[in-house]
């Protein structure tokens, strides 16, 4: 599916630029995109290092077990094949907490940490495991209860009650997360057999 | 309320950092040494992600910069309008999954044009808050461990994004601020 979406974006871009008589736009897009990728990856180096370091302290101090006890029951249901005492479980919970609290810069580093631990449990290293699929789908659907960026933006645009958007956002994000869990669980078995081949 | 939310989001990371280091120290963990040990991974992870990011961002930029995205919005507008979805909010629905910075800029623009308290403003804000930049998440997360096949995850994420747009519409319609 990713191959088709990728090709669709390139094809649509070339056709649109050509029909505008400005094919240069495609080349500009290529340059912009590659430059942006380096900027994003470079920006990640420091902050991933930072949170990996903090997570190492938290692991060695036994904080992950505390977190696992607090959020464990829910996580064990979402990720049944991850052993509760495996570091992957702690990392998954840390990433989920960062997402829920809207901790911006911490979300991606903690999410990647969890992916790393899930890869240790994954038998086919180039194919996503069930737990990875669930985790990526949940992350991409987001579960924020504190949309601070949006509230700040509303404040700066003179909204009467900037924080009142929390209600609709939390309701929408909860519903869409439930949809994500259902979709993931029902589509999972369709791709499982193919993944094993 | 708003002061409390802002204080919480400003204090969360400083408090976490202080809390984790203090807890570690009290447990006798050599915190600085462990930190450095853990932090070594950052470089490798970022490098592993780079090829995936280049692939995805180049395609997204070609798609956006050429005007193909605007074209797609123009083509879809009559259909979504017939379903009652406001055309002013449609760009948000399409840009949100592919670009985080793009959708934030768009939200700011929508606030400036229609007002943060308008129906369009609240709808765009709810759409922004209820989903993530799905393509970015999948690209970076899969890339960080070198996955080649993400199975049904892209389909799940995009369908969930579509569901979030529809849910946001109905929720904002029935939610009076």
Poorly predicted spans of chain B: none
Mean pLDDT of chain B: 91
Return the structural class of chain A: mainly alpha
Q: How many beta strands in the DSSP annotation of chain B?
A: 0
Radius of gyration of chain A: 20 Å
How many structural units, i.e. domains of chain B? 1
Assembly status: heterodimer
Element-level helix/strand string of chain B = HHHHHHHHH
Q: What is the domain total for the residues of chain A?
A: 1
Strand content of chain B: under 5%
Folded structure, characterized:
With 197 residues, chain A is mainly α. Chain A has one domain. Chain A contains eight helices and no strands. In chain A, α2 packs across α5 and α4 (87-100) packs antiparallel against α5. The two termini of chain A are 18 Å apart. The model of chain A has no long low-confidence stretch (mean pLDDT 89). Chain B is mostly helical. Chain B contains nine helices and no strands. Chain B has helices at 2-26, 31-39, 41-65, 68-82, 90-95, 100-114, 119-130, 134-144, 153-174. In chain B, α3 (41-65) runs antiparallel to α8, α6 runs antiparallel to α7 (119-130) and α7 (119-130) runs antiparallel to α9. The longest helix of chain B is centred in the first third of the chain and has 25 residues, at 2-26. Chain B starts with a helix and ends with a helix. The mean pLDDT of chain B is 91. Classes of the chains: A mainly alpha (197), B mainly alpha (177). At the A-B interface, α1, α2, α5, α6 and α7 of A face α1, α2, α3, α4 and α6 of B.
